[in-house]
Amino acid sequence: MKHEIKTKKYAVVDLEATSASADAQIIQVGIVIVQNGHILETYETDVNPHEPLTPHIKQLTGITDAQLAMAPDFGQVARDIYDLIEDAVFVAHNVKFDANLLAEALFFEGFELRTPRVDTVELSQVFFPTLDRYNLSYITEELEIELTDAHTAIADAMATAHLFLKIQQKIMCLPQVTLTKIMQYADHFIYESSLVITELLPYAQQNISKEYNQVLDLILKKQLVYGEAYHLAPDFEHNVALLDLDARPQQADFARLVTQHLDDQKINFIQGQAGIGKTYGYLLPILAKYPKRKLVISTPTKLLQDQIMETEGRRLGEVFHINCHSLKGFDNYIKLDNFWTTLEREDDNRLVNRYKMLVLVWLTETKTGDLAEIKQKQGFMPYFDELRHDGKISELSLFRDDDFWQQSYERSKVSQVIVTNHSYLLTRVVDDKAFVEDAILVIDEAQKMPSQLENFSRRQVRLASLISEVEVLYRQSPDLLTRRLLESISYHMEQLADSAGKPGKEAVVESCVSQMRQDLGELGPTVLPRLAEVLAPQFDDFWVTQEVGDDKRIRVLHAASLDYLYFKDLLPDSTKLFCISATLEISKRVNLAQLLGFSTEQVTMGHMPQDRQANQKVWLLKDVPQIQDLSLEAYADLIAHQIKRLERLRQPMLVLFNANQSLLAVSRLLSDFGINHLAQHGHGTAANIKKRFERGEAQIILGSGAFWEGVDFVNHDQMLVLITRLPFENPQDRFVQKINRYLRLTGRKPFEDYHLPQTILKLKQAIGRSSRRPLQSSAIIILDNRVLNRKYGKSFRDMLESVCEVEDISSQKLVQAIRKHLK
Questions:
Q1: What is the per-residue pLDDT for 1?
Q2: What Å distances lie between residue 727 and 398, 571, 611, 623, 762, CA to CA?
Q3: In this protein, which residues make up the domain named Helicase ATP-binding (predicted)?
Q4: What is the pLDDT of residue 225?
Q5: HEC string of 421-442?
Q6: What are the E-state strand segments in 454-496?
Q7: How far apart are CA 525 and CA 545, in angstroms?
Q8: What domain count does the chain have?
């Protein structure tokens, strides 16, 4: 401890029991006495429950019936336990179970336990606000607390005691101003956990140190800004050594390819296979050659953006003092004015008040104000939506100088390296081309940019919220003509909503949009700005979608342009552009540069040779049914039984899906089978479940979206990848229809020249997820037999055989073949 403190006596308790139910019998007791910041005493005993243990409890705890047969009855140890804890505050991790069970057992022996209760779960949620989870095994690993023999009472009690000491340390390291503010909401803890804060408040920091700013009662962490950056060496391998990284020949070759094109005046497209370390491969040569020139890196997802900042960005700052800054859209950041408003407001919701406390702590730690750092939002997302920034900051705001979005925007002007995502990049360059003027712009995973351009060129609005907005305006308007026009718009929006999912809806949409445009033209665009944005003249394709959730239907009006948008047209001429991709030639007649709007004369193409992977093998299942002919239920059942069969290998397994509906259906079946797994959307975000998977919380992970192309699995020596379906795009998707139109107009065949090669590329990237380092071995299983029985299947097979060995096999022989490959 930093201070010599005087505190109450705390009894940190953990029980093992015959079950988790209310009528469970205690089988083991562990107690650790903590006072004045030190562990003073421990106590442990087995207890004979006089009933056999279930196999689950035996496996979980390692306790046997023979061991407990030699143990005392609870009545024989009740006096010792009561004497030890009756004058202490009862502390446990999930205190309700332990406290209720022990109090009841003591009561039946004539001892009444009335001690206050403190829960280290709710304290951890407030004082360690950025953790993904709060179960004991996870939190002890995160805080580097030893936990051996988990699920034995004394081991869990000792780990909880050390966690409790860490919480005490954290409280005393916080400014008193923050703790005083937290105490305004501490009555909303479920238990008497506020006792811990109250008695440590005098020991907390009274003076605000230089690392903080104070605005009203908010204490904010100052951002770390490096001074003059160090110069990188001209030699790539020397810089790699300074970063304490292993030399990688393919990474060095890629870096040399980047270096060759740094001084030319063309747009540079560079192809490099997955797993060679491309990020350092372009970062280090560019920073060495141009130490004063701004470098903007754009990734396809926020997940990859955060990964670069957490790894390469952090190391560049630590070793070379290079200021790297992550830039996202304003709604990713907290707006301090909004948060202060909620603090001034009384809320009865216990969860909301806990969030207020944890955000107060988080503000003393965060350097970005990015709400994604807080992982507990799922409990009450509307509160965090209330905190999100709207991109505006009042001149009268007391938080103007400390506004995270404003600071992020300003820091982007002075940071040497800016990491952003494709979506925000497009928004920014349209509004402000100076953002990348004279900069070096690297588009990482550039093959994703065409679809991002399509998303950027769309608009959407919920019809229900628009209808409500029109109703409010109608009631407020005294003008008869305005009311008639609003009535017309409201009627046609109702018609649009009613058309969702019905035959002939296209004609209804066309008619309603035409009339609403006419009505809005008479009203003026400022009356209904959100509707005006969707009905803007540049849009000529409209449709309505419907989602059903939480017993309500959400109908959305979408707008897009039929014209193809070129990335080239958005950039200033002074931008030096590198497009990095796993492939450049989509087919013989279509390449990535063309799709982004660049002519052959404007670009250079650099290619990295691809090595065949000796430790990777693909199996094509030849005895599965045609999956495209199966119902959702039959399809999910087929996949779930394949997973059940492969589970016998006891290897980490990634299962890739095209559709979330089938992913969640398989997840439900696996739960019915009792198979532990992590499912995207069902158990958390892609980033969250990936971290949990890598920690070993489950050996099976079900993923879609980013898992196909953007999430790497480096930590596993061996891995299985089950590909449930070839990743063709949905032919009804608006972008697919637009690219088809564009290709036909330019004399090319959409399927042969674009969709087939794009799908092959996506499959190639997917099998590369589990081959990220030389000694890593993996087995890829493809459940979709179109590779074997369709004419275009040869194209898939040729690609697969260029990467690794491929074998056709029956389901019955699969497990043995994989076991032989991985041994």
A1: 43
A2: 51, 31, 24, 20, 7
A3: 237-496
A4: 77
A5: EHHHHHHHHHHCHHHHCCCEEE
A6: 459-462
A7: 24
A8: 5
- Does residue 379 sit in the same domain as residue 292? no
Dig out the tokens for 696 from the structure: 């070993």
Count of alpha carbons within 13 angstroms of residue 54, beta-carbon side: 10
For helices 336-344 and 350-363, the axis angle rounded to 10 degrees is 140
Same domain, 482 and 584: no
Both tokens assigned to 624: 């599965």
Nearest in space to 283 (alpha carbons), one of 444, 447, 83, 128: 444
CA distance 515 to 540: 14
Here the CATH number for the domain that contains residue 303 is: 3.40.50.300
Task: Please tell me whether residue 572 adopts helix, strand or coil conformation.
Answer: coil
Is there a single domain that holds both residue 155 and residue 239? no
Q: Give the domain extent around 699.
A: 616-822
- 348 plus 432 within the same structural domain: no
Is residue 650 assigned to a domain? yes
The answer to whether the Cα torsion of 733, 736, 740, 741 is positive or negative is positive
What mean pLDDT do residues 777-795 have?
90
User: Cα separation of 324 and 225, whole Å?
Assistant: 9
| Alpha carbons 360 and 180: distance in angstroms, whole number | 11
Handedness of CA 672, 675, 678, 683 (dihedral sign): positive
Give Dmax (Cα) for the chain. 91
Find residue 808's DSSP bridge partners.
Answer: 620
* Residue 283 near residue 440, CB atoms below 8 Å: no
Q: Is the pLDDT of residue 766 over 70?
A: yes
Are 408 and 419 in the same domain?
no
Whether 34 contacts 10, CB under 8 Å: yes
Side chain identity at residue 771, one-letter code: S
- Under 8 Å between Cβ of 616 and 804: yes
Please report which residue ranges of 11-132 form alpha helices under DSSP H.
Answer: 55-61, 65-69, 74-85, 95-108, 120-127
Distances (CA, A) of 587 to 101, 450, 727, 733: 67, 16, 17, 21
Cα-trace Rg, the chain: 30
Residues β-bridged to residue 205: 175
Contact 657/642 with Cβ under 8 angstroms? Answer: no
Q: How many whole angstroms separate alpha carbon 733 and alpha carbon 175? A: 53
Indicate the burial class of 628 (C-beta count within 10 angstroms; 0-12, 13-18, 19 or more): exposed
Average pLDDT taken over every residue of the chain = 89
- Is the pLDDT confidence value at 86 over 90? yes
Task: Report DSSP state, residue 680.
Answer: T
CB-based contact 385:413 (threshold 8 Å): no
**According to DSSP H, which parts of 524-616 are helical?**
529-534, 592-595
Note whether 622 and 597 are same-domain residues.
Answer: no
Looking at the structure, tell me whether residues 807 and 776 fall in a common domain. yes
Structure token pair of residue 15: 């029980």
**Looking at the predicted structure, is the pLDDT value of residue 26 above 90?**
yes
Q: Collapse the DSSP code of 12 into the 3-class scheme (helix H, G, I; strand E, B; otherwise coil) and give the result.
A: strand
The per-residue b/e assignment along 197-226, b for 16 or more CB within 10 angstroms, e otherwise, is bebbbebbbeeeeeebeebeebbbbebeeb
d(CA 813, CA 815): 6
Given a contact cutoff of 8 angstroms between Cβ atoms, the answer to whether 734 and 766 are in contact is no
Contact present, 816 and 619 (Cβ < 8 Å):
no
**Amino acid present at 584:** L
The share of the chain scoring above pLDDT 90, in percent, equals 54
Model confidence pTM above 0.85: no
Please name every residue paired with 731 in a beta bridge, in sequence order, or none if there are none.
none
Q: Which of 808, 718, 720, 795 is nearest to 764 (CA)?
A: 795
**Can you name the residues that pair with 218 across neighbouring β-strands?**
215
The answer to whether residues 447 and 500 belong to one domain is no
Q: Cα separation of 694 and 653, whole Å? A: 11
Residue 289 contacts by C-beta under 8 Å, 6 or more apart in sequence?
Answer: 259, 262
